[in-house]
Amino acid sequence: MILIGVVGAAVLLIISLWFSILAPTGASAATPVYVRPGGNDLLCNGTVNVDYSIPCAPNCAFRTISKGIKEVDTDGIVNVASGEYDESVVLDQVITVTMSGDITVTGNISITAGALNATPGVLALQGDFAHEKDGRFYSKNGTLKFNGSSPQHIQGDQVTSFANVAIDNSTGVYLDFN
Known about the structure:
The chain is an alpha/beta fold. Helix content is 15%, strand content 30%. The strands form three sheets. The chain has a five-stranded parallel sheet with strand order 1-2-5-8-11, covered by helices on one side.
């Protein structure tokens, strides 16, 4: 009887360890999550503010802001490190995205829920900027730089304040209000 109990407990322990090893790394991450240009959306879980490397994985940063937004818990924080992000960013959840250092977003930024705390440095945007519904934008005394290669638009139905705006777009930047 004692031998069967010990063997059963050992089997249960092995099964528990097996499932903990195979648990998906992309499950909803605890707050906060981290995003860095050297991160990895497939092999990292966003829980540690370090670049992807085999010894660190899965405890490393995501590569895209969009992945951080998707994986963070409601009311959570996505911390974005300086660098270039080749994506459009849609902030449509009740979370906070906090940027640090100089950041370039090659696509659009759309804020409809939650809060975007812009970097106190330069947030360079190559796409359009939209601020609508219940979203909040905080400029943090930084500069929002419009530097796209085609006409860009600042649009939305919310009052938006910018500490500093720089326009480096020979095709123009336009204000569109709903």
